[in-house]
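Holo prediction. Input below; ligand is 3-hydroxy-3-methylglutaryl-coenzyme A.
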Amino acid sequence: MTATSTLATQRASIREVGLRDGLQSLASIVSTADKCAWIDAAYDAGMREMEVGSMVPAHLLPQLADTEAVLAHACSKPGLLASVLVPNLKGAERALAAGAQSMVVPLSASYAHSLANLRKTPDDVVAEVARIRAVRDAAGSHAQIEGGVGTAFGCTLQGDVAESEVLRLMQALLDAGADHVSLADTVGYADPDSVRRLFEKARRLVDGRLRTAHFHDTRGMGLANAYAAWQTGITHFDACLGGIGGCPHAPGASGNVTTEDLAYMLQRMGVATGLDVPALLQLRQRMHAWLPNEKLHGSLWQAGVIAAPQACAAICT
Ligand SMILES: CC(C)(COP(=O)([O-])OP(=O)([O-])OC[C@H]1O[C@@H](n2cnc3c(N)ncnc32)[C@H](O)[C@@H]1OP(=O)([O-])[O-])[C@@H](O)C(=O)NCCC(=O)NCCSC(=O)C[C@@](C)(O)CC(=O)[O-]
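Structure of the complex:
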């Protein structure tokens, strides 16, 4: 898809991943009731895709130990696509039993990060996706399987990651049974040029089966990278309210691109997201009470939204 035809689409979807990527690296533990309130408020603000936790061993990420309960609440929301991260077959079995509508299987294109994060090589993760697909199909479930290719632009443990390796693994995930794939910049190694280059190549290879772009704002390029991905035809983005997030097994990892800033950027570009940006800002404000010891990030909350032209005209006359 060319930039011109992409811009004609003028619709994009943001998946709030704060309850998973956002919380996984924070020491604070948010109560299940507060997580459900977070889901309610995001849903009321128009959010229709949320990643609400991880099916990892509770002792590894106690922050996400209540994922089953949080997922059950998310699944009660009509029209909400509720996903969870699953690191292995056991996690997928838990996700299927809990009624997940979408499972994100992370695969690190960086060999070193793959071992640190999942104790598996990237190709072992591909083989695990084949097992997850077999179990899902045998269960008669329609839960989507997303292969999330992380460290796609490099990482602190290994340095460079070759584009050819990222593309190979992306294709291997689809061949193994993933329904679609996403590309992630785990530690802020991407820039708009490298994003455009890799996403264009990836889209040439698998077209619409490359669904989502997942950026961290580690070096201040999160929004610029999202814009570059949008220009290649990507219309699904991951983001975290308050810009929290980061992989605990990736040294130097920091927060995701900020949901409210990304939603506002798209809105200013005339792209419909279905999101109520002032409502997102109110939700961000509530997060201070849920995460009193954590720093929230982003820009829009400081300056506020610029009033729509009609409202401005009314005020100015
Ligand atoms: C994959 C493992 C589990 C391997 O960990 P392991 O120790 O190799 O696991 P194992 O298979 O040897 O099993 C050890 C024990 O854990 C149990 N177990 C095993 N699996 C599960 C499970 N799913 N749920 C519950 N329990 C489980 C298993 O049953 C066994 O129990 P025991 O017999 O000793 O009583 C571990 O390495 C792991 O959980 N890693 C995940 C780390 C993580 O969450 N990282 C962050 C997410 S990835 C990320 O942030 C990047 C991303 C996606 O956001 C993209 C980006 O930003 O770029």
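Residues 122-138 form the longest helix (17 residues). That is the main takeaway for now.
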